[in-house]
């Protein structure tokens, strides 16, 4: 579709939200079939709003392709799992539970646009530098994304707990 960038779709299809949706579909059928994927509604947003999703997908793909860790104190696998995928999941939750997130004043997509910079057309050493900088920003005290991740797990626990347990 012209409405979606493939990396945006990839972000949604690999999210905890999508896995939960597919689990719900599987419970009502015997297995998961390719046509079942069509049942997952891909949220339509403007192409420009898809950019932070695309950037994080680029970060994750790049990190998974590296044979050596880019940081000496955390593996690429943990960097992906506990930082970038966690933010990506939160952004997907914000898309699908927009009213609930707004009511609690929890935002991710807006801040992701500021914290995560594109790496698509950079040389590998520049990609590494950009990802390191993003990680450092993400772990700083007072970082809006980090703070909102904590708030999300408290203020939206009842909403998200069934999804996160799956």
Furnish the topology, listing elements before pairings.
Elements: H1 6-13, H2 16-27, H3 34-37, H4 47-65, H5 76-96, H6 98-103, H7 109-115, H8 124-139, H9 144-155, H10 157-165
Helix pairs in contact: 1-4, 4-5, 9-10
Q: What can you tell me about this protein's structure?
A:
The protein has 166 residues and is mainly alpha-helical. 69% of the residues lie in helices and 0% in strands. The protein contains ten helices and no strands. The mean pLDDT is 92.
Short description:
With 166 residues, this protein is mainly α. It has helices spanning 6-13, 16-27, 34-37, 47-65, 76-96, 98-103, 109-115, 124-139, 144-155, 157-165.
- Which overall shape is indicated by the principal axes computed on the Cα atoms? globular
In whole angstroms, how far apart are the ends? 29 Å
Element string (H = helix, E = strand): HHHHHHHHHH
Low-pLDDT sequence parts: none
Features:
10 helices; 166 residues; mainly alpha; globular
